[in-house]
Amino acid sequence: MDLFLQNIVNALQWGSFYALIALGYSMVYSILMLFNFAHGDIFMVGAYIGFGIATGLLALAAMAGLPVPGWLVLVLTIIISMFLTSFVGIFIERVGYRPLREAPRASAAITGLMIGIILETGNLALLGARRLSFPSLIDTVTFQIGSVYVTNKKIFIVAVSLSLMFGLHLFIQKTKWGMAMRAMSYDFQAVPLMGVSINKLAPLTFAIGSGLAAAAGILYGLAYPVLDPYMGILLGWKAFVAAILGGRGSILGAALAGFLLGFIEIFAAWIFPSTFRDLIAYSIILLILTFRPHGFFGQAHSTQLRL
Amino acid sequence: MALLRVDNMTHYFGGLRAVHNYNLVLEPGHITGLIGPNGAGKTTVFNLITGIHTPTEGNVEIEGHNLIGHRPHEIASMGIGRTFQNLLLWRHMNVVEHVKMACYSQLEYGLLDAFFGTRRCRREEKRITAKAMHLLETFNVADYSSRLISNLPYGAQRRVEMARAMATNPKVLLLDEPTAGMTPDELNRMIDIIRKIHRDFEVAILMIEHRLKFVMELCEKIQTLVFGEVIAEGTPTEIQNNPEVIEAYLGKEDVT
Amino acid sequence: MDFKGESAKNMVNKKASQRKGRGVKAWLARVFGRIPLIGWLMGSLGAVLIEYFLGDALSYYLGLPKIPVLFGSSIILKKPALIPGALAYLLLVYALPVSLIAKSMTRPANRLARLLASRPVSLATLIHLGLFYLILHLWAEISDYRLLVLKLTMIAVMLTLSINVINGYMGEFSCSHPGFMALGAYGASITTLLLCVDDKLMGPALLPAAAGPWLFPLALIVGGIVASLGALVIAIPSFRTRGDYLAIISLAFLFIVKSLIENLEFAGGPRGMSGQPDYAGLPTVFIVMVLCVWTINNFVRSTMGKALCAVRDNELAAEAMTVNTRKTKIVTFMFAAFWAGVAGGLFAHVLRYVNPGSFGVQRLAEILAMLYFGGLNSVTGSIVGAVSFNLLSEALRPLELYKWIIIPLLFILVMLYRPTGLIAFTEFKPRELMRPKE
Fold it and tell me: Does the pLDDT at position C300 exceed 70?
């Protein structure tokens, strides 16, 4: 029972990463009907940008001799990195996806893959092959609730992800741009006729998605402080699974499916030997999809790839 | 014995009743029309007969063979050919390939023949190519045979679709609005074409049609479907003078 | 100037002559337009013979340390001082002999091509393939590196072509190909390790060593069958769902397979298996690749294979026109997975080592890149995609890291200008390719 609760805490943390990344996939899908396969690598870039900002801020504070508290640095890092990484997203949309808007979906997907490889290699070329370790900005404090151990980092990670998701929800429900996005996901053709420019909406979507990925990257760095240029690949593909599992283009679905995937993986690793994690976890996903072929929140219409 | 026989067919989509107690007896060589306002469930009737949906209740038989529970492709090879209201064609295939594809169930070679390109495979391909070309000539589209379907004018696409349906060797042909989107000129041509296939291929035809002129000219019997129920059935003149039909259908629709 | 490139150039020339262009293209068309494929093969044979017998001497006189291995790419990228020598070598050994021999043989080559055209197409194909193999064999004799590159390229052709059957002809976005490949690689490796060699994992050989090479095709078939049985896991859900959902089903399959083989302790677990016998020589790989191209091309050109396109473009219409779509889907997945498995088996025996790490999402990205670069729905496209990707990535090897910036950029450029890939939606007709040009 204790272990069970302990694993729930772990799963919440692990699911947060998937959920934040899956949101980016899902948002881009709902606007442009394509999957941004560079998204996992944007997550990686976000983590690295976060690393740079955090180290920079720490150095700055040390130079000025100010006793800046760690949590402040962390919050600043997240905000600045989200902002900077969103420009990476905008840039990718501009050079990679906009010229391909009329092209077959699969070519856009391949372009995404290629952009991802460029990001990984570019990172490797800039920073070399050594692994960086993310600065530990806040000291780990462990709380004991009953017999379950929870660290302040875990609480922080889950809290930040949930509040980001809530913020996104508010943005989509309450603002003009959010409304345009929702409209767009209902009818791809009609919205451009209604005076909402897709050339503004698409970069905005990429920016938000990339910002969320950057937040996920920094939170990931906080939990697992070793960064390497290929860290985004597997996480990206798995978040892609979550994004579709939640129903394409469904924001709530993507978030929930992200957490679900986190739970399945953590519990598979808990119940079975941990090397069996992927085997069990994805067999479950496969079974779910075999019996609910359209995910959890997606409409049951068959899509054909636009060739 | 009736060629196509539908008994008390009822179908629900979720809680929504789409078709209720539909009956049909189609004798060999007869042409029956199915009319009714939009959303009356006419295409659903076609989809139920061809096995795309399985009826909640009721029975469909062709030449005494029960069709319920069979997959659509089996029903098609048992002798029910159809066309679609909105032309379901294959975008990346050329015209002759369309017609050859409809001969799929008549192919007498196996997968291994296809993999290794055996003599039997080549012979069969040659046979169905000849058959397809013959059909294309019947429908006056042989000149387009090697063109991509999407490069054809609309009327020609319709005729290719019909040639494709005929290639399945149907005993019953279901035509779903064969004149949708046609000019009056093309309409007259379509009447000739349907007469010709009716005569040359000796098929029975069930067709959904909106244009009454067309139905009146071709059909021996007409059914009127409103909200999934047949409210009237009879010869064209009977239908034309039936007050219920006039109220439910003719009164509202733009009659041409 | 690989030999596939020669035939492609040949086709470009043919087209140019029809267009009546001006300038270099028209000149090329005038001079080379009438040489049939067999003429180019003869020219290439001459070139590789020259390299085989005179290559060492020539490179010595041109000041090169040894024969340029991959068309001088590493010299050009690494040692600028030797560039003139390398270019001269390329000119003397490849460009001049190929073009001169092909040109001077125009008339006899055409006569031969006419003669072959009047015979059954299988005979002509065999003669062309034999000649082509001879060229490859002589070319690969120069160094082991060339041999390895050739074998891996042929395996890539098989992978790209087989994924094209699913992703191109049937229009699904399947991500499971590395998984099929892994199943094939492990299936074949376990068979050969168990039966043919003494090793630590599988114990002593069960069969005498002499039987080994003869059993190798059987091992490949075992690998292929294992892969196609695995494909059922994806084929059955494909009855009810398509597109994105099937994409993640196939992706989940890939993760499952990878995790499964990581946990197979008797197959080495995450460390993988090594010591596969050296059965995958160039002739074997070549023959298997030809079989793969041949059967896939036959299939997709038959009406039974065109049913894939019908299912892709409109499944409802396909069903209504008597096409058994479920059978079509199962056959497609199993058939493509079979060849992916065979390719995996070859892969394991060429490298004589497999580990689960080779079959991850990176491999998937590579296969997808080759496929979409070459073009969907086209056997030629897949061959061109796989060959150009492999040769390019070998030729740019001296750039080390930057290779992985240049190649993706190149691919993005191709996607921008030809969104469907280099050669999409074409039929590969051997008869056309081999026809006389006069």
Answer: yes
What pairing do the DSSP bridges indicate for beta strands C273-274 and C353-354? Answer: antiparallel
Average pLDDT estimate for C411-416: 88
Q: Would residue C285 count as lying in a domain?
A: yes
Residues C184, C50 share a domain = no
Return the beta strands (E) in B55-115 as ranges.
57-62, 65-66, 80-82
Asked which of C327, C359, C391 is the last residue of a domain, the reply is C359
Domain residue limits at C223 = 149-359
| C181 and C54 in a common domain | no
Name the CA dihedral angle for B14, B15, B17, B23, rounded to a multiple of 10 degrees: 70
Please tell me whether residues C101 and C59 are part of one structural domain: yes
Examine residue C420 and state whether it is found in any structural domain, yes or no. no
Confidence at residue B251, expressed as pLDDT on a 0 to 100 scale: 56
Distance from CA of C305 to the nearest CA of B (A): 8
Query: Do the beta carbons of residue C379 and residue C300 sit within 8 Å?
Result: yes
Domain boundary among C336, C359, C382: C359
- Tell whether C36 and C181 lie within a shared domain: no
DSSP code of residue C269: G
- Whether A307 is covered by a domain: the verdict is no
CA distance A150 to C281: 58
pLDDT of residue C17: 46
Query: Which tokens in the block code for residue C195?
Result: 């039966």
CA distance A92 to A85: 11
Q: Indicate the pTM of the whole model.
A: 0.91
The C-alpha atoms of residue C43 and residue C25 are separated, in whole angstroms, by 20
More confident residue, A100 or A212: A212
pLDDT exceeds 50 at position A157: yes
**In the prediction, which pLDDT does C433 show?**
86
pLDDT in tens, C19-57: 455 688 888 888 888 889 999 999 999 999 999 999 888
What residues in chain B have their Cβ under 8 A from chain C's Cβ atoms?
Answer: 50, 52, 71-73, 76-77, 82, 84, 88-93, 97, 100-107, 109, 111, 114-117, 121, 125, 128, 164-165, 167-168
Q: What is the ipTM of this complex?
A: 0.90
The answer on C153 and C115 residing in a single domain is: no
Structure tokens at B224: 């009127």
Domains of chain B in start order, with CATH, are 1-79+170-256 (3.40.50.300)
Is C186 found in the same domain as C92?
no
C118 CB within 8 Å of a chain B CB: no
